[in-house]
Amino acid sequence: MTASEGCPLLGRWRIVEADLWDRSYLDLVAPAMIAIGTDGHGEIAFGALQAGLDLGYSQSLVHFTWAGFEEMDEVSGDGNAELLDDSTIETTFAYHNGDEAVLKAKRETSSTAC
Fold first, then answer.
1. Which residues of 67-105 are buried (b: 16+ CB within 10 A; e: fewer)?
2. How far apart (Å, rounded) are the C-alpha atoms in residues 46 and 59?
3. What is the pLDDT of residue 113?
4. Dist. CA 68–CA 54, nearest whole Å
5. Through-space distance between the first and last CA atoms of the chain, rounded to whole angstroms
6. CA atoms of 114 and 110, how far apart (whole Å)
7. What residues contact 19, with CB distance under 8 A and at least 6 apart?
8. Alpha-carbon span 76 to 60, nearest angstrom
9. What integer pLDDT is reported at residue 74 of this predicted model?
10. Backbone CA torsion sign across 51, 91, 18, 94
11. Which site among 88, 93, 101, 110 is 20 to 30 Å from 82 CA-CA?
12. Which residues, 6+ apart, have CB-to-CB distance to 113 below 8 Å?
């Protein structure tokens, strides 16, 4: 499935907060992020987790299932990302038969200088 032309959640987002983990854990390996692609796929990385996303789109919400690795163990789950009024996203991120967390992210901006 492909995204609709006007889906405002497309792009790369910097995860800045979580209800279960502090910032130092989120950025343990690399800056925490979620990327929402136009082709039905995306990715998420925070802490020791790296996973691919299979996406389903609506105008202000993206549903996903995910699978990847955390500390060399296979993990999977599901979730959704919702666009908030302040132009951030709130992501509900659930491990299969495990924890559920709420992640907050801001759109990643380019830092290239002129």
1. ebeeeeeebebbbbbebeeeebbebebebeeeeebebbb
2. 26
3. 45
4. 12
5. 37
6. 11
7. 101, 102
8. 24
9. 97
10. negative
11. 110
12. none
**Angstrom distance (rounded) from CA 87 to CA 47:** 24
Q: What is the distance of C-alpha 71 from the center of its chain?
A: 18
SS3 content of the chain, % helix, strand, coil (to 5): 5, 55, 40
Tokens of 66: 């995910």
Residue 56 CB neighbour total at 10 angstroms: 13
Which pLDDT tens digit goes with each residue over 39-61? 999 999 999 999 999 999 988 89
| Structure tokens belonging to residue 109 | 């901006």
Residue with tokens 């979620």: 34
Question: Which residues are paired to 87 by β-bridges?
Answer: none
- Cβ contact 14:33 at 8 Å: yes
3-class DSSP assignment, residue 90: strand
- Say what the pTM is: 0.88
